[in-house]
Each structure stands twice: as C-alpha cells, then as structure tokens.
Amino acid sequence: MMNWGDAKTWAANLSFTDGVNVYDNWRLPTTLQPDASCGSQAGGVSYGNGCAGSEMGHLVFLELGGVAGWGITTTHNSNYNLFQNINPLSTYWSETEYVPDATRAWTFSMYNSYQFGGYKNQYPGYYAWAVSSGEVGIAAVPEADTWAMLLAGLGLVGFAVRRRVTVK
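^ that's the sequence the OP posted. Answer follows.
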C-alpha cells in the first residue's frame, strides 16, 4: 500500500528480465475519461460500476469475467486463476489524474468493481498494479504443445529419410 506518487515511482522503476530481454517500461494502468461504459456520468467525468474503458476495468470485466457491482472473488472466469496476490478487498491506483480535482487520481476497487477518485496523498493509500504495453516474455517461451509438434515432425522426417536410405 502506498500513496499515488510512491505508486507511480515504484511502477516506473520496475525492471524484469527473462534472461534475454529487459522489460523496464512499467507504469500504473490508465483510466479512460470520459468512459461511456461507466454506470455514472456527471460533467464529463465517468465513475461507478462497469467502467470497462479503463485498463483495470478491461482486465476485470472483459478478461477475468467480473460483474459490475460484485467483487472479483465472487464473480470471475477461469482466467482469474492465472493471477496471484490480487487483494479482493482493496483498491488499486490508476496513472490517470482525477480532473478537475488535482488532489485526486483515479482508482479501481476489486471489492465492488467500482471506479472513483482517491486522494493522492492518502496514507497508507491504495495498492499498485504495474502494467506494460505489449506482451511480456510470451514470445521467449514456446508452449509445450508447440515443442511436441516440432519434435514429432522432426521424428517423422528422420524416419522417412532413414527409410528412404535403407530401401535404396
């Protein structure tokens, strides 16, 4: 848990390597404003339940199968099991400042899938979730079925070549 400034600094200073590539372009998720998918609209500000336009909302509603107004542990699909350490009772910071109030930034609550503006200097604050554009480390590790198909294909080619040499 940390305030908004510390959360931004933490995400910006993350660095991950898969042994070949270094991934150091981390940040907090963004919040779309205005966002027509949000349950509440007022003066060009979108908040409340169902905000699928934000990166956290997209993750919760579209990728994890969450339902607006419900906690992520109550309603989700099997993709939820791909994540560890999601605090279901907590709120996560967004990179996006809450306009028109400069003392606040957008947040997303896992408890009830609600998007709202939290005070930046709140202590101890909320949680931080670092994101990076693009897929991180996916291309570096082929899936097991890809390796199995490759080995089976090479085995068949080797068998065919050996048989052809033996027949002559």
